[in-house]
Automatic annotation (TrEMBL):
This is Glyoxylase-like metal-dependent hydrolase (Beta-lactamase superfamily II). GO terms for molecular function: hydrolase activity. InterPro entries: Metallo-B-lactamas, NDM-1-like, RibonucZ/Hydroxyglut_hydro. Gene3D superfamilies: Ribonuclease Z/Hydroxyacylglutathione hydrolase-like. Coiled coil: none annotated. Belongs to the metallo-beta-lactamase superfamily. Class-B beta-lactamase family. Pfam families: Lactamase_B. Residues 19-75 form the Metallo-beta-lactamase domain. Keywords: Hydrolase. GO terms for biological process: antibiotic catabolic process.
Length: 173
Protein backbone atom coordinates (compact mmCIF):
# COMPACT_ATOMS: atom_id res chain seq x y z
CA UNK A 1 0.00 0.00 0.00
CA UNK A 2 1.27 3.46 -0.87
CA UNK A 3 0.24 6.66 0.86
CA UNK A 4 0.47 9.68 -1.41
CA UNK A 5 1.38 12.93 0.33
CA UNK A 6 -1.06 15.81 -0.02
CA UNK A 7 -0.29 18.63 -2.41
CA UNK A 8 -0.47 18.84 -6.17
CA UNK A 9 3.26 18.11 -6.74
CA UNK A 10 3.05 14.79 -4.86
CA UNK A 11 -0.17 13.77 -6.59
CA UNK A 12 1.25 14.72 -10.01
CA UNK A 13 4.40 12.71 -9.41
CA UNK A 14 2.67 9.63 -8.01
CA UNK A 15 0.21 9.30 -10.89
CA UNK A 16 2.69 10.48 -13.54
CA UNK A 17 0.75 13.48 -14.77
CA UNK A 18 2.88 15.52 -17.17
CA UNK A 19 0.28 18.15 -18.09
CA UNK A 20 -1.59 18.87 -14.84
CA UNK A 21 -4.52 19.40 -14.68
CA UNK A 22 -5.12 17.95 -18.13
CA UNK A 23 -4.91 14.31 -19.08
CA UNK A 24 -5.65 11.15 -17.17
CA UNK A 25 -3.74 8.42 -15.38
CA UNK A 26 -4.56 4.77 -14.75
CA UNK A 27 -4.56 2.66 -11.62
CA UNK A 28 -4.28 -1.04 -12.45
CA UNK A 29 -5.90 -3.16 -9.78
CA UNK A 30 -4.96 -6.35 -11.60
CA UNK A 31 -7.64 -7.05 -14.18
CA UNK A 32 -9.51 -3.85 -13.40
CA UNK A 33 -8.26 -0.41 -14.39
CA UNK A 34 -9.46 2.85 -12.89
CA UNK A 35 -9.05 6.22 -14.56
CA UNK A 36 -7.75 9.16 -12.50
CA UNK A 37 -8.56 12.74 -13.52
CA UNK A 38 -7.08 15.91 -11.99
CA UNK A 39 -9.87 18.22 -10.78
CA UNK A 40 -8.33 21.10 -8.80
CA UNK A 41 -10.54 23.86 -7.49
CA UNK A 42 -11.87 22.56 -4.20
CA UNK A 43 -8.27 21.79 -3.32
CA UNK A 44 -5.20 22.09 -5.54
CA UNK A 45 -4.61 18.32 -5.47
CA UNK A 46 -8.19 17.08 -5.98
CA UNK A 47 -8.72 14.08 -8.22
CA UNK A 48 -11.68 12.08 -9.50
CA UNK A 49 -11.56 8.34 -10.04
CA UNK A 50 -13.67 6.53 -12.64
CA UNK A 51 -14.48 2.83 -12.37
CA UNK A 52 -15.69 1.48 -15.74
CA UNK A 53 -17.01 -1.68 -14.02
CA UNK A 54 -19.53 0.14 -11.79
CA UNK A 55 -19.54 3.25 -14.02
CA UNK A 56 -19.09 5.33 -10.88
CA UNK A 57 -17.21 8.60 -11.00
CA UNK A 58 -15.81 9.20 -7.52
CA UNK A 59 -15.61 12.96 -7.10
CA UNK A 60 -14.45 13.40 -3.50
CA UNK A 61 -15.19 16.83 -2.03
CA UNK A 62 -15.44 18.40 -5.49
CA UNK A 63 -19.03 17.29 -6.13
CA UNK A 64 -21.49 15.79 -3.64
CA UNK A 65 -24.94 16.57 -2.22
CA UNK A 66 -23.95 19.56 -0.10
CA UNK A 67 -22.04 22.83 0.06
CA UNK A 68 -19.38 22.77 -2.64
CA UNK A 69 -16.57 24.83 -1.11
CA UNK A 70 -14.64 26.33 -3.99
CA UNK A 71 -11.19 27.65 -3.11
CA UNK A 72 -9.99 28.39 -6.65
CA UNK A 73 -12.89 29.54 -8.81
CA UNK A 74 -11.30 29.37 -12.28
CA UNK A 75 -9.69 25.99 -11.63
CA UNK A 76 -12.94 24.59 -10.29
CA UNK A 77 -14.93 25.76 -13.30
CA UNK A 78 -12.35 24.24 -15.66
CA UNK A 79 -12.32 20.97 -13.70
CA UNK A 80 -16.10 20.60 -13.85
CA UNK A 81 -15.98 21.31 -17.60
CA UNK A 82 -13.37 18.52 -17.97
CA UNK A 83 -15.63 16.13 -16.00
CA UNK A 84 -18.51 17.00 -18.32
CA UNK A 85 -16.29 16.31 -21.36
CA UNK A 86 -15.23 13.00 -19.79
CA UNK A 87 -18.89 12.08 -19.20
CA UNK A 88 -19.60 12.51 -22.91
CA UNK A 89 -17.25 9.65 -23.79
CA UNK A 90 -17.72 7.39 -20.73
CA UNK A 91 -20.90 5.87 -19.37
CA UNK A 92 -21.48 7.16 -15.83
CA UNK A 93 -24.17 5.60 -13.64
CA UNK A 94 -23.48 7.76 -10.58
CA UNK A 95 -21.22 10.49 -9.25
CA UNK A 96 -20.18 9.65 -5.72
CA UNK A 97 -18.78 12.30 -3.40
CA UNK A 98 -17.42 11.86 0.10
CA UNK A 99 -20.34 12.97 2.25
CA UNK A 100 -23.85 14.42 2.39
CA UNK A 101 -24.96 17.82 3.69
CA UNK A 102 -28.32 18.13 1.93
CA UNK A 103 -31.72 16.96 3.10
CA UNK A 104 -34.28 15.37 0.81
CA UNK A 105 -36.06 18.73 0.91
CA UNK A 106 -34.85 20.38 -2.27
CA UNK A 107 -32.25 23.08 -1.76
CA UNK A 108 -32.10 22.58 2.04
CA UNK A 109 -28.74 21.84 3.66
CA UNK A 110 -27.93 20.81 7.22
CA UNK A 111 -26.00 23.18 9.49
CA UNK A 112 -22.21 22.82 9.43
CA UNK A 113 -21.05 20.20 11.92
CA UNK A 114 -24.40 18.36 12.06
CA UNK A 115 -24.12 14.80 13.29
CA UNK A 116 -27.85 14.06 13.10
CA UNK A 117 -29.36 14.28 9.62
CA UNK A 118 -32.59 12.26 9.77
CA UNK A 119 -33.85 13.22 6.31
CA UNK A 120 -30.60 13.35 4.37
CA UNK A 121 -30.45 13.01 0.61
CA UNK A 122 -28.82 10.02 -1.03
CA UNK A 123 -25.10 10.17 -1.80
CA UNK A 124 -25.32 9.36 -5.51
CA UNK A 125 -25.69 12.19 -7.98
CA UNK A 126 -26.52 11.68 -11.65
CA UNK A 127 -24.75 12.86 -14.81
CA UNK A 128 -27.62 15.36 -15.23
CA UNK A 129 -26.61 16.89 -11.88
CA UNK A 130 -23.07 17.36 -13.17
CA UNK A 131 -24.47 19.11 -16.25
CA UNK A 132 -26.54 21.35 -13.96
CA UNK A 133 -23.44 22.21 -11.93
CA UNK A 134 -21.55 23.10 -15.11
CA UNK A 135 -24.46 25.23 -16.34
CA UNK A 136 -24.70 26.94 -12.93
CA UNK A 137 -21.00 27.80 -12.97
CA UNK A 138 -21.34 29.16 -16.50
CA UNK A 139 -24.38 31.19 -15.47
CA UNK A 140 -22.49 32.69 -12.53
CA UNK A 141 -19.51 33.55 -14.72
CA UNK A 142 -16.12 34.92 -13.68
CA UNK A 143 -17.11 36.48 -10.35
CA UNK A 144 -17.70 33.79 -7.69
CA UNK A 145 -21.05 33.82 -5.93
CA UNK A 146 -23.15 31.44 -3.89
CA UNK A 147 -25.92 29.63 -5.72
CA UNK A 148 -28.41 27.16 -4.22
CA UNK A 149 -29.71 24.26 -6.29
CA UNK A 150 -31.95 21.39 -5.24
CA UNK A 151 -29.11 18.89 -4.74
CA UNK A 152 -26.07 21.07 -4.08
CA UNK A 153 -24.94 24.57 -3.12
CA UNK A 154 -22.13 26.37 -4.94
CA UNK A 155 -20.19 27.99 -2.10
CA UNK A 156 -17.08 30.01 -3.06
CA UNK A 157 -14.61 30.55 -0.21
CA UNK A 158 -14.26 34.26 0.50
CA UNK A 159 -10.97 36.14 0.86
CA UNK A 160 -11.53 36.61 4.59
CA UNK A 161 -12.15 32.86 5.00
CA UNK A 162 -8.91 32.16 3.13
CA UNK A 163 -7.00 34.51 5.44
CA UNK A 164 -8.56 33.05 8.58
CA UNK A 165 -7.78 29.51 7.39
CA UNK A 166 -4.18 30.47 6.66
CA UNK A 167 -3.80 32.06 10.13
CA UNK A 168 -5.44 29.08 11.85
CA UNK A 169 -3.06 26.66 10.09
CA UNK A 170 -0.03 28.74 11.08
CA UNK A 171 -1.22 28.78 14.69
CA UNK A 172 -1.85 25.04 14.65
CA UNK A 173 -5.57 25.40 15.25
Amino acid sequence: MTLVESGAPSVREYFGFTDWPNGTATIDLGGRKLTVLPIPGHKEDSIAVYDPHTRWLLSGDTFYPGRLYIWEWDSYRASIARLVDFSKTHRISALMGTHIEMSRTQGQDYPMGSSYQPDEAGLALLPEDLLLLDATLSEIGKEPEKRVRDKFIVRPVSKIERILTWVAKRLGL
